[in-house]
Amino acid sequence: GIDFGFEQIFGEPDAVHSINGVWRTTITVFLAVRNFIYKLFSLIFAVPLAILFGILFALISVLGVYFFVPIGRLLSIPLGWVAKVWSTVIGAILDPVCRSCGLLFGNVKVSRYGINHDPTAVISA
């Protein structure tokens, strides 16, 4: 989550400082307003969003259990041959191409040389 402290948002430079009472009052007001607004928005949004996401997750679960899994199993019976053909085509065509590309590019070495030809030196203009 996002958790910013007062010092991360308002920072005085070391050279100048405001009056101590002003600085302490500013911190107190900032923290009070932040906490109040957070609690107000939590009250407004938390319960409706919890209900909404509860309904959505329940719907997705029910659809998965009672619709998608049975349809998938039903379709796997007549379409099982498609998976076998697809696997054979991929194994016969794409596997050799990908393996060849891997062997071709597997030995490529990329290095960056600076002005003094030291690979660890920082390149400076």
UniProtKB/TrEMBL annotation:
GO terms for cellular component: caveola; Golgi membrane. Belongs to the caveolin family. It is a peripheral membrane protein. It comes from Meloidogyne incognita (Southern root-knot nematode worm). Pfam families: Caveolin. Keywords: Cell membrane, Golgi apparatus, Membrane, Transmembrane, Transmembrane helix. The lineage of its organism: Eukaryota, Metazoa, Ecdysozoa, Nematoda, Chromadorea. The chain crosses the membrane at residues 40-69. May act as a scaffolding protein within caveolar membranes. Interacts directly with G-protein alpha subunits and can functionally regulate their activity. This is Caveolin.
